Amino acid sequence: MVLGDLGADVIKVERQGAGDDLRSLSPRFRGTGTLFLAFNRGKRSVELDLAAQPGREALLALTETADVLIESFGPGVTDKLAIDFDTVRERSPRIIYASVSAFGDGEMGRRLPGYDSLIQAFSGMISITGHPDGPPTRVAPSSIDISTGSWLVISILLALRRRERDGEARHVTGALIDSAFNLMGHQILGTLATGEATRPLGTGSPSTMPNGAFRAADDWIVVATANQSQWRRLCEAIGEPELAEDVRYATVEDRIAAREELQRELDGRFAQASAQSWIERLQAARVPVGPINDLIEAIEHPLVAERGLLVAVDGEDEQLPQLRLPIDPHGVGVRSGPPRLGEHTAEVLREAGITEDEIRGC
Questions:
Q1: DSSP string computed for 101-132
Q2: In Å, how far are 24, 25, 33 from 30, measured between CA atoms?
Q3: 101, HSE (Cβ side, Cα atoms, 13 Å)
Q4: Could you say which of 18, 308, 311, 361 is the most buried, measured as most Cβ atoms within 10 Å of its Cβ?
Q5: Beta strands 310-311 and 289-291: pairing type?
Q6: Three-state secondary-structure class, residue 254
Q7: Backbone CA torsion sign across 262, 230, 209, 144
Q8: Per-residue confidence of the chain (362 residues) as pLDDT tens digits?
């Protein structure tokens, strides 16, 4: 999708008759899973039976005019289907062949199943999410899937750039486990430095305090102090200047060590007024503070419109809007919505020089 927004012609090859599993997952909009709708705009859908020779041959014919092929089969599947890197390179000597896996294709990794939640569990991400005495908690967004796609885009663009110099095909790879560890770089280095596993802190930060959610009289707010100046201004703004002089909370390290005690003191103070009044008071004192919105509140906030984050798809009034890329401030890359299953099969295969009879056999 990122490459498509940047101008690439993206052809999505889907299983004949069934298509991408994400099409059927809930919740749905007009019969199609919103998870599919979120990540498949601007693509052309082609149905092929890759288990049959005509379908494999059609795919190889498509690679002859392609710059990039991206596959996310389990280890060994491309070899079995005879669409592996070496086979494709024979047909397309300049191809950039990109493979995504869960744990890589090594002896151990190739035997492990891979979904975002499994990677979160294996990598320790679930163990540092949630509250100290709560059950295991998954990070709600599929952050590992999404970040792996972003890293793969960078690899593909770099490979294309290098190909300009030497004209050679390349096989680039991405693994979900690599992305998971990269996302947790701060926590991993902290664990290596101390020899102690990072523990879940709810909304708290392992590096600063106070930094997290506090309950006001009517709702929650988040305060995020990062230095001594902000800490002192916070104490003044809440009417507790003596806290800034309390030896128990003198430094960031002291406040982290006394986290639970300080949390109770601040909770008691914040409970005396409404969330909005605290937000206004702390903002006036230049203390980082904000509300905790639910998704409806966040989507409907005027800032979302100011940033133009949601983009209507031209000529498709009955489609959901799309989220623009963070690197596309005007949403110009959002050109068309997600395709219907097989919508472009005949069109794409004709462009590849496949005859009508051959198309019918695919």
A1: ESS-SSTTGGGS---HHHHHHHHTTGGGSS-T
A2: 11, 12, 9
A3: 18
A4: 311
A5: unpaired
A6: helix
A7: positive
A8: 999 999 999 999 999 999 999 999 999 999 999 999 999 999 999 999 999 999 999 999 999 999 999 999 988 899 999 999 999 999 999 999 999 999 998 999 988 888 999 999 999 999 999 999 899 999 999 999 999 999 999 999 999 999 999 999 999 999 999 999 999 999 999 999 999 999 999 999 999 999 999 999 999 999 999 999 999 999 999 999 999 999 999 999 999 999 999 999 999 999 999 999 999 999 999 999 999 999 999 999 999 999 999 999 977 667 899 999 999 999 999 999 999 999 999 999 999 998 887 877 77
CA distance readout (Å), 276 to 271, 273, 296, 350: 12, 8, 18, 61
Residue 328 falls in the annotated catalytic set: no
Q: Exposed/middle/buried for 152, CB within 10 Å: 0-12, 13-18, 19+?
A: buried
Backbone angles phi, psi at 158, to 5 degrees: -65, -40
Q: Write down the catalytic residue from 9, 145, 246, 328.
A: 145
| Distance from C-alpha of 57 to C-alpha of 176, rounded to nearest angstrom | 30
As to burial, measured by CB atoms within 10 angstroms (0-12 exposed, 13-18 middle, 19+ buried), residue 3 is buried
Compute the distance between CA of residue 107 and CA of residue 104 in angstroms, rounded to an integer. 9
| Nearest-angstrom CA–CA distance, 69 and 80 | 17
Best CA proximity match to 157, nearest among 42, 3, 5, 44:
3
Cis peptide leading into residue 302 (ω within 30°)? no
- CA 360 to CA 362: how far, in whole Å? 6
- Nearest to 36, CA basis, from 53, 20, 55: 20
Q: DSSP strand E in the chain: where?
A: 10-15, 28-29, 32-33, 43-48, 68-71, 96-101, 170-175, 211-215, 220-224, 289-291, 310-311, 322-323
Q: How remote is the C-alpha of 248 from its chain's centroid?
A: 40
